[in-house]
């Protein structure tokens, strides 16, 4: 009788590859996108795992992939609450915040590049502004492909339409956050430069990658009937209303109105519109529902100022919604709710910034009445 050969297949998967298979990110593959060994994250909390993954693992991630950071439980709500603290939403994907990757001037450069890609997955660059400065090229190479034939730069990953369809509220909140962040970045770039390399980098970002050269999503949507069909399908699946051009303009004006005062009464909103020569339209209330929370008849902007403080702001707004009108909240109530919901601490300055933006102190914190 012939003896059967004992053919063994060696298992040679690396620890890092095994971790990557458990938590797949995207196709982006560079030095920072190497998987993290399971032993390095298994004992960490969800927030700690997220920070480690975004800072040492992949910079561009699909939400569905990040859910694998803790496959033993359902973490969608927890993850959605924590993610904006450490990542930006770009084309439906979550990109590591620059504060986790770099510091100082380089963080500003990376933030501006991410901001441009948040507007469109393809941006044009001016061939006359060459070569691309080293610091700009470094962060572009991590996030985009350069296509010389088309004189453009394309975001490395395809838009995650599944996330956009499933979580329209998160998309809207991030759009509002980017609106504020844009002004902060431009003001930062207007400051003095430490050396000629920084000046050249800013010149390229402001002129070589001028936002005016960014392809408009709205124009491509109008030109492409298929894209418009996708928007209608997304609206029907999520209950959203497809905004008309007039509604889009109204949203822009309202965002500016709430940038001045983030808590407003309906009367104050109408006065602000009339002051800009706009008669309040019949769809005003429905449009307000896209960008504000109605807290006992007062409209509170869902996002304002620093996006890093959005989670803290959301917890405080929710507290007022859960209490009766004109409720007075104590500091210990707010702090307890924040710790319970976010499992993190905020500095006294951050706490003061958010509370003062929403409340007035009358022997306890009361939500502003919105009469600006």
UniProtKB/TrEMBL annotation:
It comes from the Eukaryota. Keywords: DNA-directed RNA polymerase, Transcription. It holds the Pfam family RPC5. The keyword Transcription applies. One of its GO terms (cellular component) is RNA polymerase III complex. InterPro entries: RNA_pol_III_Rpc5. One of its GO terms (biological process) is tRNA transcription by RNA polymerase III. This is DNA-directed RNA polymerase III subunit RPC5 isoform X1. It comes from Iris pallida (Sweet iris).
